Amino acid sequence: MRSRGHENVGASVGFAGDEADERRLAWVYLSRVVQGPCAALSALIERVGVVEAARAVRECDLPDSLRGPTEQRRGIDCAERDLESILGSGGRVVTPDDPEWPAWRMLGLGQLDSARDPGAAVPLVLWVRGPRSLLTASEQALAVVGARCSTGYGERVTAEIVGDLAPRGWTIVSGAAFGIDGAAHRAALAAGAPTIAVLACGVDRPYPASHARLLAEIAETGLVVSEYPPGTTAHKHHFLARNRIIAALADGVLVVEAGLRSGARNTVKWARRLGRPALAVPGPVTSASSVGCHRMIREGEAVLVGRAEEIIDEAGPLQLSLPADAPTPERSLDGDEALVYAAIPRTGARIPLELSGESGLPLPSVRAALAALDLAGLVGCDESGWFRVAPGGR
Asked: What Pfam families has UniProt attached to this entry (predicted)?
């Protein structure tokens, strides 16, 4: 999805008044209950809606697959307090109902097989600090990850690549960790490029603590993001779950330095699952900090790159020349996408609930079709709802 006009952050679309508030509180409540990816809960929300899913969790009216994951915190409903907390820290919560929700980025996570990839679920909500729209900031983005114990070589290469990508409109996504993560964020800030830090804890708890100033700087001009509610402390399994969001928010994942057991390889795994290119920078053959990169290149898990131009070749948008009489994407639509597109007026906008009524499709199908239409460049979204985009109008 892409917005038009000014960047819209934190406003609901598709619902009004009390219904929007009820849905937002339901999303926030469920985010606190599971604290991380939960494919079974995502499936329940898709089937019955978020408000009914929240009721079912509160009353333990659940299938066996959800009783365990929700047992510990289903009796804790502090949604209003969580919303007050995030607003008090200058942040916001972004739900799938909001115009800045990056639906087309998250689409891949929802299509993965959770039996094969535990933790593959779409985040229920994203807690955000920063002035930019999460949607527009992630339109052209590269994830840069690597060794926590980085070398001068790795930090220099990171700074050069990020510095070359910055004037070309790329956003840098990373995890705010020591080493390459921090170097990537700092290089983006120095070059005036947007940068997104994805945390494994609440966005109000800087982690690592010594990066509090760095995260504050990112929050001033970029975005600090987490799927974990305010006040949540980082745990080991949170970092692995966090990696899928780093990969999902970017067009590709670049690894600069990685030891043999580096967590960066987990981010590469998610990139490959999501169909994103995985890239790695080689280092000296004598460097233990580059052994992981060399292994990923040798085993075909990542493509060797050394310059910004090579990264753009692999992860950048395709530049195709089409004949003048080539069929437009609109003419080739079928199924749900055709029904939803036909329900959108040529002028003006419609919210998903209205499109559901006009197309005769259930709301989850409408949302999925809108994400696909947005990816095809046929529709956009702002505070008034979804609208058609003229060819070449992006």
From this structure: DNA_processg_A (PF02481)
